[in-house]
C-alpha cells in the first residue's frame, strides 16, 4: 500500500534528488525518498540496538564485582609487563 504525501525539500535536497533521477539511478523522486527513508529507518534501528547493547553492558558492569584501585594497578602493571615481554609495547 502506498500513501500520497506532500513534502517540502530544500533547494539542495531537490537538486540532489532530481539529479539521482536524471542519472537513471532512481525511477522517480518518490523512489529516491523511499530509499532514503528506508536507509534512515535501518540506521535508526541499528543505533537503537547498539544503545540497548551498551545499556546492557553498563548494567552488567555496575552490578558486577568491584575491584580495588590497588588490584587494578596490579592488573595494569601485569598487562604492561606481558606486553613488553611479547614486544607489543616499547619499554
Automatic annotation (TrEMBL):
<dbReference type="InterPro" id="IPR022789">
    <property type="entry name" value="ParD"/>
</dbReference>
<dbReference type="Pfam" id="PF03693">
    <property type="entry name" value="ParD_antitoxin"/>
</dbReference>
<protein>
    <submittedName>
        <fullName>Antitoxin ParD1/3/4</fullName>
    </submittedName>
</protein>
<dbReference type="InterPro" id="IPR038296">
    <property type="entry name" value="ParD_sf"/>
</dbReference>
